[in-house]
Design brief:
By secondary structure, the chain is an all-alpha fold. The chain is 70% helix and 0% strand. It is built from 13 helices and no strands. α6 (117-127) runs antiparallel to α11. It starts with a helix and ends in a 33-residue tail after the last helix. 49% of the residues are buried.
Length: 325
């Protein structure tokens, strides 16, 4: 009995550490997304083209790798496939808003607004009957004034249409996390990543084709370097993101994901020449504090529960004699 309890505790801690590492890696990679995206847009590529090309290339790359090296990850049960498709459609629509907003506002401001997504994650997961520890709520409370301070860029008026687009992108990105969390109870992260990206491609590629901007791709090879970099970031960040969600949960992964904001702000100042103000640095400090508190947050890993709005996309209960394969 004692040995079994110790073994379960070690396994839980191991899963938690794996989830934290994956979520931090995802945050680092996702922090590069608006940098490469803004660079491609500045070089003349239409925002819809940026999101369509990078999503399609990342999808083809992932399915190619899985078909050659890990074919077993191509299997998925019907309810899980529906969940991945739903998450991909939601996130694909959010990506269209994200890159359209980047075409109107600075990468730093865009990422500041996008960093509100943990608030939306909390809202969606509360609707899905999840509860949070007091420290998780404290970390969320610290992150909100941090993001408010980060909004004071001192760069003049803001394009409010771009602001609305980015907030919609954050809300939709937040929605896809609890949907995929339900699917990840039963399915490996690479499988969820592949079918979610496939569903995203089914949204963003036709939108680009029928937008009438297909012939506006700039000549030369310079624009393709940030697009290829964005493709690689998308490929790696999605794998690490869903690994984090699987072992840590959507809320914890979202809070750690706020680290991507720090990456974006630093690179936007260094690479794109966008400036940081004193309030932004104060907000960055508070945000760092919220992230570091993960060391004391003992929220348990996500459990497969048969209630909530998203319970219908989980696998049906199995009998002890059922073969999981």
């Amino acid at each position: 009995m004692l040995g079994s309890w110790i073994g379960s505790q070690v396994k839980t801690r191991s899963e938690r550490v794996r989830g934290i590492n994956a979520a931090l890696l995802s945050a680092l990679l996702l922090g590069l997304t608006p940098i490469f995206g803004k660079q491609a847009i500045n070089l003349g590529l239409n925002p819809l083209g940026v999101v369509a090309i990078r999503t399609l290339l990342a999808t083809l790359l992932l399915f190619g790798v899985m078909a050659i090296f890990q074919r077993q990850y191509l299997f998925i049960y019907p309810a899980g496939l529906i969940g991945c498709l739903l998450a991909g459609w939601v996130n694909g629509l959010g990506s269209l808003f994200f890159y359209s907003a980047l075409g109107r506002i600075d990468a730093s401001i865009g990422q500041l607004l996008y960093s509100l997504y943990p608030l939306f994650v909390a809202m969606w997961m509360y609707i899905d009957s999840h509860s949070f520890s007091r420290l998780t709520l404290l970390r969320l409370a610290i992150s909100l004034p941090a993001i408010f301070l980060l909004f004071f860029t001192g760069n003049g008026p803001v394009d409010w249409l771009g602001v609305v687009m980015m907030l919609l992108a954050a809300m939709l990105y937040a929605l896809h996390l609890p949907i995929n969390q339900r699917v990840l109870y039963d399915i490996p992260a690479p499988t969820v990543t592949a079918y979610t990206l496939l569903a995203m491609s089914a949204i963003v590629v036709p939108t680009y084709i029928f937008s009438g901007t297909l012939n506006s791709i700039p000549s030369g090879t310079q624009v393709w370097w940030p697009v290829l970099a964005l493709t690689l970031v998308t490929f790696l960040s999605r794998l690490s993101l869903f690994t984090g969600v699987k072992h840590l949960g959507g809320m914890q992964t979202a809070l750690l994901g706020l680290g991507e904001l720090l990456v974006t702000l630093i690179l936007a100042a260094w690479w794109l020449g966008e400036s940081l103000s004193l309030p932004q640095w104060i907000g960055a400090f508070l945000l760092s504090l919220s992230i570091l508190l993960i060391a004391w947050d003992t929220s348990p890993p996500p459990q497969n529960r048969r209630r909530g709005w998203f319970s219908h996309i989980s696998a049906p209960p199995m009998n002890p004699t059922d073969d999981p394969l």
